[in-house]
Amino acid sequence: MLAPLIEHDLARDGDLLDVLAAALSHPANRTAAASASHLSRSVFYQRFAQIERLLDVDLDDGETQTALHLALLVRRSSGR
C-alpha cells in the first residue's frame, strides 16, 4: 500500500512517508500536521496532494486513514 511513497522517497530523498505519518497523527488539524512535519502549510498541502495522487486515495476518508496508519505501523514494527 505504501510502495509508491517508499519508491518516491528513495528516488528523491523525499519525506512523503513522514508527511503522511504527521497527517495521520493529526487527521483533523492540518496546521498541526504541517507543524509536526516542520513544513509551511502551503508546502504541507502540496505534499498532501502529492501523496493522494501517488496512492490514488482520498486522505479525508476514515477507512483510508485507518488502512494507511496500520500500514505505517507495520512498516515501523518491521524495522524499515
UniProtKB/TrEMBL annotation:
- Do you know which Pfam families this protein is assigned to? HTH_30
The PucR C-terminal helix-turn-helix domain covers which part of the protein?
16-74
Question: Superkingdom of the source?
Answer: Bacteria
Q: What PANTHER family does the entry give?
A: CARBOHYDRATE DIACID REGULATOR, DNA-BINDING TRANSCRIPTIONAL ACTIVATOR ADER
Q: What is this protein called?
A: Helix-turn-helix domain-containing protein
| Organism, scientific name | Microbacterium elymi
